[in-house]
Write a structure and sequence with these properties.
The chain is α/β, with parallel strands linked by helices and 208 residues long. The chain contains 7 helices and 7 strands. It is elongated, with a radius of gyration of 18 Å.
């Protein structure tokens, strides 16, 4: 029932005259839009995420967000599509999703007591009339100095699985950190303040 409600509300963006589609099945991104009262429907982008050579982590986030938005926009030419992607960076290098507990341990050991960056990109794409906007929010996160016991205890939660940087800050991962500088929504997966501005500029009426 809830999804049907959001499907209906996604067609009520009267200012833009376009259906609003989120190019993601992430429950975290969907929950952020719902909490803000934004009507939308979600659709999997169905694109392969690969890392082209020569791109910085920030550039990669931007490229993947636009790629996801465009994939869904081409299937829905009149829709206004939101795409988003996130990368993690330590010392200028991309932090990939760990494929094993040992890889997650190495990432946490490397980040402990140090700062790293999360880059969350959001893209807005429509084919007709054409619209193409992309922005990136970068967040600086500083981990506490972690003991080997603390690292193993966190790995036991299994939150590291499927997460670049080997933590989920919206869960018990928050216990690993000393400080976070930036938009919390962007950490969770969607920079809402930036996205709201982009939607308003595109003519979407969000209030009243």
């Amino acid at each position: 029932m809830r999804q049907k409600i959001h499907d209906a509300r996604s067609r009520q963006n009267e200012g833009s005259g376009a259906e609003l589609v989120l190019a993601s099945t992430s429950p975290f991104r969907q929950s952020l839009l719902r909490a803000a009262g934004v009507g939308f429907r979600a659709e999997a982008p169905g694109v392969e995420e690969h890392v082209p050579p020569g791109l910085s982590p920030k550039q990669l986030a931007r490229r993947l967000a636009l790629l996801k938005a465009e994939a869904v926009a081409f299937r829905n030419p009149g829709a206004l599509v939101i795409g988003s992607d996130q990368t993690a960076e330590l010392d200028g290098a991309l932090l990939r999703k760990p494929g094993s507990r040992a890889a997650a341990r190495r990432q946490l050991e490397a980040m402990a007591g140090r700062s790293h960056w999360l880059h969350t990109a959001v893209a807005l794409r429509r084919l007709s009339p054409p619209l193409r906007r992309v922005a990136v929010e970068s967040i600086k996160l500083t981990m506490r100095r972690l003991t080997a016991r603390e690292i193993e205890a966190y790995l036991d939660t299994d939150e590291w699985q499927g997460c670049a940087g080997s933590y989920r800050i919206e869960g018990r991962g928050i216990l690993l950190f000393d400080s976070v500088r930036g938009d919390y929504h962007a950490i969770v997966g969607l920079p809402m303040l930036r996205l709201v501005r982009m939607l308003r500029e595109a003519g979407v009426r969000l209030l009243g």
